[in-house]
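Teaching note: in complex prediction, the entire set of molecules is handled at once rather than each chain in isolation. The prompt given to students was simply: 'Predict the structure of this complex.' The entities are:
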Amino acid sequence: MESKKDPILGIDLGTTNSLGALFRDGQPEILRAGSGDDGLVPSVVSYTQEGRVCVGKQALAELSSNPHSTIYSSKRFFGKTYSEIEPELSKLPFKIEGDAKSLNFRIGDRVFQPFEISAEILREVQKLASKAAGMELKRAVITVPAYFDDQQRSETRAAARAAGLEVLRILNEPTAAALAYGLDLKKEGTVAVYDLGGGTFDVSILQLRDGVFKVLSTSGDTFLGGDDFDHAIAEYILDNSQMKDEELSSELLVALKIAAEAAKKRLSDLEEVSISIHVEEPKFSFEGKLDRETFNQMIASRIKKTLRSCKGALKDAGLTKEDISEVVLVGGSTRIPYVREQVQDFFLKTPYVGLNPDEVVALGAAVQGGVLEGCKRDVLLLDVVPLSLGIETLGGAVTKILLRNTTIPVSITEEFTTSVDNQSGIIVHVLQGERELVDDCRSLGKFSVSGLPSMPAGLPKLSVNFTIDENGMLKVHAHEERSGKAASVEIAPSIGLSKEEMDRIVEDSIENAMDDFELRMIVELRNKAERILVALDRTLDRARDLMEKPQIEEILVCAAETRELLLKRERNKEVLERVIDRLGDLTRPLADLIFNDATHEALVGKAVKEV
Amino acid sequence: MLCSSCGAEPISSIYCQCCESLNLGAKPGNPFEVFQLPAKFPLDKELLESRYLLLSRATHPDQVTEDFRSDSRLLFFSSKVNESYRKLKDDFLRAQSLLEIQECYQGLDPNRLPEGFLLSMLEIQEDVESYTDNPKDHQQSLEEIEERMESAVKESFREINHSYDFLGVSGADERQKLQEVKTQLNTVRYYRRVLESVERLLEEL
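The expected output is the structure of the full assembly:
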């Protein structure tokens, strides 16, 4: 059977810019609209007053004129809650809401989660890339900062899902960079990738040998990058202006951001730059200069922090600076001369700057796409888990089962026991992070092994197994050996939303993307079919008592047929309508029997759309 | 054991490099068997490395076609290769693995420590704790402890290596030697714990 699968798009979903690349004719290639196009999609999304969404360069152009409804750096807010980013708020021109558990962007009367914004960006990258490639690209390898935790990775997956992309791999950015670098230059040895982007910092140490890219260790900070340097300059401008502690308008904040970013970029070539800002409402004027030395001082403590991560990564890899054969710089912020100097001073060697820091991550993602497609066999990537994983034990402590920087795939089993006599159940609380207390780690999920027979404390033998597959997906299984009771959980990419909420958002965003009325109808029909199936599942047990066997058989056959159609994402309206009608007819007696007509309405009734 | 299909001597319990075939029915066995390396404490690191890379290529799900990728045996094998590599590469885990495959392992006293050891460790730990409030003033002392612990770890591994030399030598009291290994491994754990807290303090400076 011919099983030629679609090519896999490599996407660098960056804080500031995003980019798509494809592996073709034996090498990765940036997808551009034409020779004049850089292919970059600024990671900016703007919602116009007419309800139109614009993304990328167009949205960037809206920033000044439409500051309340234009969102940038959405990736920086992945996995964050309102409480965590509160200190940042006064620096942002757009509105953020939420509490200790959530975070939303507010635009007019609509709210968006960070992943919904990123979904728009992914959709745009996919659209442009498909156009450039001359074919519809639906499968993707998407890069994330290596130090992203499970929650942040889940949000990335959610964004991809909402954009209608099938994610074949979530790939770490420095690893992607190393792939592109090692392949292009046929390098071998031990390499440190220092990746300082718009919002995040990563350092990874890799061993390159015989086409195998083995990650030895990785470290970083998911809230440290070029945006912080912009903020520092903006603060400098405010401190040196007549502006008193008034509420800063969105217009002014955007003007500050634009001026700060421009000054930062020019300072990479010049010793001193002049900055001028004029805003009408409220009246604000600034004329001044900023020299490189002052700028360096502003960012010094943050750069120092990145070097501490480098030190940690070296230690985790069991290496010293002398073992590193090359330091590779990635990410736009490594264009800053001070960053280069500091990295050089730390590693005691001149860093390699021959890569285009804007493109190398997307190129690496495309290489991994080629590997997964099966058209690039000589490369193998051995990646690691970035953060330790463990379970909660006595007194709110975390016992680590999988240590950070363990190569995946991996499967490890550890034994635990009870602390109280006659415990009938054991709760397995799965956590991620380096700290020792539950409260300081990220909770990934909880499940319990229940129904244990009475045993004194310490007698039960609970084996807990953590398995992580090549995709980085974690499965936890626990069983009590003496009683044979078992339970397991797949830590599904959840983002603190119930499945229903997630489905609604995905559905909404698919709808947003569809300009075609027909397609919208089809989505409605699919959802309707899905609702019937869910309702049917819930009532089937009772139906068995109330209905004749052949009748039930008929319902089951029809339900299976419907499921099949949903699975293959049927796009034919008539086919869907026919099966839904039939399912409705077949279940009518069931609804009559169990409930009343009103409930039947819920079974097959029209979707009540929430606005 | 020779490869059943080509008769060559394979580099792994699950893979034959000669006919490039994965033996999906095979039991991987202990870490030494996975890499077909002698069950001894001294390790040919270069050989381990090259076999690890070969085996990773043979078992990693990314290296097979998409249809075969979800085969759970592949995930099991590649996890096993990674786990075995980790256990052999690290001195502590290798010594522990070697111990676990000995017949008398279950009969050893798992918690034994040298006489007076705990007391001396407690003293050191107390010293470290007294420096926590003000590590800056005690940098030198902390560095001294760090150095002492590091050489103690090295010494323990020398002892472990020495004890393991008796494996397979006829007439040697194997059980006693293995108990010595276990005891030394226990001390390493303590040394490392102290090292960790010292390093944390030094990092703050």
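Point out the following to students. The longest strand of chain B covers residues 15-16. The domain at 15-89 of chain B is CATH 1.10.287 (Helix Hairpins).
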